[in-house]
Amino acid sequence: MSIILAIESSCDDTSAAIIVDGTVISNVTATQTIHEQYGGVVPEVASRKHQINIIPVVKAALDNAKIDKTELTAIAVTKGPGLLGSLIVGVSFAKSLSLSLGIPLIDVNHMKAHILAHFAEEPKPSFPFLCLTVSGGHTQIVKITAPLEMEILGTTIDDAAGEAFDKSGKIMGLKYPAGPEIDKLAQKGNAIYKFAEPKVDGLNFSFSGLKTSILYFLKAQLKEDSQFIDKNLNDICASIQYQIVYILIKKLKQAALETGINQISIAGGVSANSGLRKALIEAGKENGWKTYIPAFQYCTDNAGMIAVAAEFSYKEKDFSNLNMVPEARLKI
User: 306-316: per-residue pLDDT in tens?
Assistant: First the structure.
């Protein structure tokens, strides 16, 4: 029997989960709301909050699962990518617990874990499949041929889709993180405004030009009417969301066509966006895809996905050691 404690601390969420023989039985997350007042995550503040949260979060995960730490067979932790200070807190804690209990340590790639979150619950994709991973820091199209075998087919050359949501929201005066708020407002509006579509070769993405297009559009409208944003907020949000989702799905269709793969999934924080989820389902029906969307609890940063990824490594006896160090820019 495998009983793994997984720890996630790559950004501003402190999370711990317990997985028993491949089934996640507890998944606890402490969210740092303090960053809303700054309009973005402050790395030093995030790492200090992790130090405060990590022990009670781990205890809650163990208590919820009715597991004593002496029953654990391995400790898993996010190695990267992420904020270095935040990663250090999780990795240091995991190393110490692994050493004190005399059990294996498993390091997990955060982005791989987002993809493997699809194996937390049914339905599960079969191999090979494509995954569009979209978050505040990453936008990638990944080909997965086995749980531990992945290849990035396309990535952003500048900003990520999640950043485009958040920065656009900041321009309009929405609180951080703005992505969920834009999604909510978009559902009340219509996509009547047009924004630039960046031209990028291959399967790569670019969102910096789109952000600039949105900024210039709003500045021009505000010169004519200082209340333009307030009067048209729902339609502006619907238009922004439509364009971001359109860019993502267009590249995903291209990837499916080039690879001939019809098992298509999305993952990452932005995969919680209702517009993207709806667009994937519609594209699946149009193109004969089998589509997979993770449950909401596995979209944003959470230790449940770290636990699922760790389970695959545990089966292969792919363990780390106490010399392992976190990597802020770790790649798949």
Answer: 999 999 999 99
Rounded CA gap, 155 and 80, in Å? 17
- Per CATH, the number for 125-294 is 3.30.420.40
Question: How many residues are recorded in the chain?
Answer: 332
Which class does domain 3-115+298-315 fall in?
A: alpha beta
Give residue for tokens 């996509």: 191
* The domains spanning 3-115+298-315 and 125-294 adopt the same CATH topology: yes
For tokens 């929405």, the residue is 174
Tens digit of pLDDT for each residue in 165-216? Answer: 999 999 999 999 999 999 999 999 999 999 999 989 999 999 999 999 999 9
Give the N- to C-terminal CA distance of the chain in Å, as an integer: 28
CA 17 to chain centre: 17
Distance CA 204, CA 140 (A): 8
* CB-based contact 78:27 (threshold 8 Å): no
Q: How far apart are CA 109 and CA 111, in angstroms?
A: 6
Total Cβ atoms within 10 A of residue 332 = 17
Q: What is the pLDDT of residues 2-46, one digit of tens each?
A: 999 999 999 999 999 999 999 999 999 999 988 888 888 899 999
Q: How many Å apart are CA 199 and CA 253, to the nearest integer?
A: 16
Q: Which helix (H) or strand (E) holds 141?
A: strand 139-146
| Distance, CA of 129 to CA of 169 (rounded, Å) | 33
* pTM, 2 dp: 0.95
> Where exactly are the structural domains of the chain?
3-115+298-315, 125-294
Can you read off the two tokens belonging to residue 75? Answer: 């400790």
